[in-house]
Specification:
The chain is mainly α and 98 residues long. The chain has helices at residues 15-25, 34-48, 52-61, 78-97, and strands at 71-72, 75-76. The N and C termini lie far apart (35 Å).
Length: 98
C-alpha cells in the first residue's frame, strides 16, 4: 500500500497530498504545480464520479482503472486517453489563469 495508506475516495485531493505522493511514493521531486494538479484531478473526478486517488495514479503512474476501462492489453483505451487529456487540459487552463 502507498504512503497515503488510506485511499482518498472523494474529490478533495489537496496540493499536499499530491506533493507527498510524488515525493514519497514515486521518490521524485515535483516538477509541476501540485495545487494545479490537485484541482485538475478533482475536476475530472467530479465529472466522472470516480475517486481522485485512482485518477491521480492514472495520470502520474499510468495505473489502470478497470471500472473506467482505461486500458486494454496494456494500452490506453479512448476513455483512458480522454481522462488523461481532460486532466492535462484542466491543469493547463489552471496555470494559464495564474
Amino acid at each position: 500500500m502507498t504512503h497515503l495508506m488510506v485511499r482518498i475516495i472523494n474529490n478533495n485531493m489537496t496540493k499536499n497530498q499530491v506533493e507527498m505522493y510524488i515525493r514519497v511514493d514515486l521518490d521524485s521531486t515535483p516538477r509541476h504545480d501540485c495545487a494545479a494538479l490537485a484541482s485538475a484531478i478533482n475536476e475530472v473526478a467530479e465529472e466522472v464520479g470516480h475517486d481522485s486517488y485512482a485518477l491521480m495514479e492514472l495520470l502520474l503512474c499510468n495505473t489502470p482503472i478497470p471500472s473506467l476501462y482505461t486500458h486494454s492489453y496494456g494500452f490506453h483505451t479512448a476513455n483512458g486517453r480522454h481522462l488523461i487529456e481532460s486532466m492535462q487540459d484542466s491543469y493547463n487552463s489552471y496555470n494559464d489563469e495564474r
